[in-house]
Amino acid sequence: MTDQPLPDIRTDVPHGARIWNYWLGGKDNYAADREIADAVSATFPEIVDMAFKSRQFLNRAVRYLAGEAGIRQFLDVGTGLPTMQNTHEVAQSVAPESRIVYVDNDPLVLAHARALLVNTTPEGVTKYVDADYHDPARIIEQAREILDFSQPVAVMFMGVFGYVPDYDEARRIISHVVDATPSGSYLALWEGTSTSEAVVRGAQAQADLGSPYQLRTVDEVAGWFAGTELVEPGLVPLTQWRTDGVEVGRPEPIDAYCAVGRKP
């Protein structure tokens, strides 16, 4: 686990990316993060499985987008700390010329991104944008330096809106970014859902320790895809989106819903 703080990083204040890193078995977290992570997993043990299932969905979605959908540009907003099979690694393994822009504004994420999120193919491009997703105009402005917004882009928001209390604010962010992309672009997104008493108790435990996470209803997550055409099988739990038979862990439905939608 990280013992020496990096510049400008508040190690005494819990951070969502580092909490998630701990659940995934990573070492880039601090005592404040681990305290919350342990409290939530004590109340809702399934959160650890959810962390891994969310990464598996990301991998399947990117493989689909780079493969069947033919997408060559990816905008991964709120990417978090580098972990297993990151977006650029998956995309460039399918289509070596893929261009990936990661977006986050956490200094620890930035430090690791600069070191680890490096191109895996000579044909492709992998870059990191230091920006807050509450400022989508800045994201688009900087992403345009890497991505061609006259060609389809896959916009990704992977479990990031639990830290946005206001539902309409999250919808504004999504709409601003997706509206900047042309027809044939895609939105890939998952979010934790209030679909069981256990997950609600886990979210309450996290809020009680100073790191609130806003669960959404399934209908609320569906609303974020308004204006897109959902790829089969539509909006489903993480464990039910185009599984490929090599998943690790339990196959049961989980309290997080996901989808991939195409912009007509």
UniProtKB/TrEMBL annotation:
Keywords: Methyltransferase, Transferase. It holds the Pfam family Methyltransf_19. It comes from the Bacteria. One of its GO terms (molecular function) is methyltransferase activity. InterPro entries: SAM-dependent_MTases_sf, SAM_dep_MeTrfase_SAV2177_type. One of its GO terms (biological process) is methylation. Transmembrane segments: none annotated. This is S-adenosyl methyltransferase. It comes from Pseudonocardia kunmingensis. The lineage of its organism: Bacteria, Bacillati, Actinomycetota, Actinomycetes, Pseudonocardiales.
